[in-house]
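Task: fold both queries, return tokens.
Query 1:
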Amino acid sequence: MSDEADPAACNPVRLGCPSYMRSWPAITRFVDQVRDGAAPRHVEVSNGLGAALLDAVRSQRLDLAIVLGPVGDPSLTSTRIAEEPLLIAISDGHPLAALAEIPIPSLEGESLILFPRDVNPTLYDYYTSILANHGLRPTILAEPSSEASRTAAAAGLGFALTPASLAAQAPIAGLVHRPIAGHALVVDVNVVRRSDRG
């Protein structure tokens, strides 16, 4: 056994990622590419959410972060690694659950169940603006996380927007996911780094 330290282990890539996204195909492919690429590196993955992950990259506590949605900060550079279709998550007892696709106008009067804006301001604004661009300005019911939002939707408190990979990998009893009729709404999956780190 060599006494030399493994350079991949000595200089790991510190990656932040929401725990609910870690098993998504695009994320596992990205981590494998970093781990097994031309210059293999050990990857240390830590959990976090939107704004907290971006703050950790800014302050150099993380080298990279994986986030959903746009990143509106010139000190950070984002690279899209995937595009996730957005689905409507709604209680299986709701009349709209019987539809194969849900038209956006049919959600009028329903609450959008969403994480608090300070958790991820740009993603929050993205979700509300894409609905507004299609004529829907729902009342917001705040829940602390994506899982809590989907659980509240299953309880019939409103609807949530859910990336397709999350819907496929983390089903919740009493919840159905439906495509949006006539509109291919998507959200980007981005890898973010400090702009001065190339």
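Query 1 returned. Query 2:
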Amino acid sequence: MKDKHKNVLPSATDEVFKNKKFSELSDKFLLVGLQEFGYRNLEGIWAHWLPKKTPKMIAHRYKNQTSVRMYDNCIKEWKRIQKEPFTQREFEVFSKALSWFGYIPQRWQLISKLFLPNRAPNFLRLEFERAISDPELAERMGRCVL
């Protein structure tokens, strides 16, 4: 009778629980997920890039990889870049991409994926809002488009 219900509940030896540690490849998938979804959407990273990890495991890995005591790595570098303002080149690329995509709903994800892969979609949205609220930046953005 025990054999009949053997596969109903997962056990600690099932594949779901086998791969608890993050590998170098898992870190690269985490980076791709961060570039696509940003840090605020761990469910998206879990669903699309790291299905064998839980969102909680992903959050812990991100926290550990970006801690002050951790050596420099690709995830820490991504986080550092997110806090820096646009470079002149990035600003020009962003302005041109905005003119191409206009106001379609997924424009931030598309611009992030195709033109500025080191910038999260949410960062792009916030930069756009900052630019249109500042007359000098808005004028500069308009000049880059033309």
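Both queries returned. Flag for query 2: The first helix runs from residue 15 to 18.
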